[in-house]
């Protein structure tokens, strides 16, 4: 459990950022099965320079629609159903979308200069029937007696996923929904991100943690009327207390 200050900037128009002073985290790694926060996986292959897993995780886009709710401040996954809005007009605050779970294979190649990860995930909850493909470059180094890590990545999301989360429905925008679709046709998008993390031990179970992530959202396949901040910066700084078998 970490105590400090954290902000998740919300790219959606008319939606509040997510803020928290508590950041719980949980992980379990067995011979094959593992859990890391909201990600669940099963190891298919584990070698010195190659890891292959099957992974289930929540889709990030659905969480953006729930950040202004208190029960989602720490990434709660309670069920959210339905949508509402005016028949001949809409406001961003009145749009609801479900959170989906996606699953698929993930492979990581471990090399001296950088670790390369590739993953393909498909919706298994029948929310949008879409898919997303992840590519990332990561590495961790010792620094000032602690550990510093960086990551550069890109996520390609297909048109089905984009249409569900980032386009308007007739019950939300009435006759204007079709006009918006013609003006901004749904298409695949490629979002990019950069992330840095630093941890410094303060004792046997305490450490200082600092993390930040910069996101750049591709607007080409989205309805830009739903996006207020195509570039966001999310961060957390605080003190973490850890318990577990490795301590």
Automatic annotation (TrEMBL):
Q: Which UniProt keywords apply?
A: Cell outer membrane, Membrane, Signal
The organism's place on the tree of life at top rank: Bacteria
Give coiled-coil spans as residue ranges.
none
GO cellular component, alphabetical, reads: cell outer membrane
Which Pfam families does its entry note?
MipA
Report the principal subcellular site: membrane
What are the subcellular locations of this protein? Cell outer membrane
GO biological process annotations for this chain's record?
A: peptidoglycan biosynthetic process
Family named by the database record: Belongs to the MipA/OmpV family.
Protein's name according to its UniProt entry: TonB-dependent receptor-like beta-barrel domain-containing protein
The organism is: Microbulbifer agarilyticus
